[in-house]
Amino acid sequence: MIEIYIADDHPLVREGLKKVVNQSTIDIKVGQEFTNADELLLGLQKKQPDIVILDVAMPGKSGLDALKEIKDFYPSLPVLILSMHPEDRFAIRALKAGASGYLNKSSISEQMVNAIRRIVVEKKKYISQTVAEQLAEQVDFNNEGPLHESLSDREFQILCLIASGKKVNTIAEELSLSVQTVHTYRSRIKDKMNLKSNVEITRYAITHGLID
């Protein structure tokens, strides 16, 4: 029996994941559910499942931050990242941080069970064709890559939120950060990417397909 832990702050998503597992399999079960990264990390201290399914965007500590801690303490524990964002936004970052796979939430019903089995049973990573093509492009060492690849995971997350039109106060509340901390991240983003305003940040994000 494959035991999974789910960490997602949306109850409907957790229920959807359980429904897919219960209706599609007899060899996979949901062990525990968590609403944030800190709860998950505490749960892992008591027992580790066969795989963790982790939302990339949660209040407080992000999924990518939690992923890095999990790989530090439990390097052999597979983690499948879930996100509402398309693969071309966070997948490569997640894989580089140690994830065993990346799945868009819109594809849960069709792909999740296959992803779990590929990762746990076959001991292989689960990536889509889109992500495979991205990885192939990065093999070209002469390609320096776009400017946003120089950002940290948190900086990249905040860039996308700013570009989507969210105010600093809203971003701070959503990420459980202080307003001053968000301002600091925004300043770093502008410095690293030589952008002067939120308008330029938004224009860059649209040009590079970072927001819908």
Number of helices: 10
CATH architecture of the largest domain: 3-Layer(aba) Sandwich
Q: How many domains in all? A: 2
- Please compute the radius of gyration using only Cα atoms: 18 Å
Indicate the CATH class of the largest domain: Alpha Beta
Low-confidence stretches: none
Strand order of the largest sheet: 2-1-3-4-5
Helical/strand content category? alpha/beta
Helix content: 40-55%
Q: Please, what is the CATH homologous superfamily of the largest domain?
A: Response regulator
Structure report:
The protein is globular. The chain has helices at 11-24, 37-46, 63-73, 87-96, 108-120, 129-138, 153-163, 168-175, 179-193, 198-207; strands spanning 2-7, 28-34, 51-55, 79-83, 101-104. Strands 2-1-3-4-5 form a 5-stranded parallel β-sheet, sandwiched between helices. Helix 1 crosses helix 5 (108-120), helix 7 packs across helix 10 and helix 8 packs across helix 9 (179-193). The chain is α/β, with parallel strands linked by helices and 212 residues long. It has 2 domains: 2-138, Rossmann fold (3-Layer(aba) Sandwich); 147-207, Winged helix-like DNA-binding domain superfamily/Winged helix DNA-binding domain (Arc Repressor Mutant, subunit A), CATH 1.10.10.10.
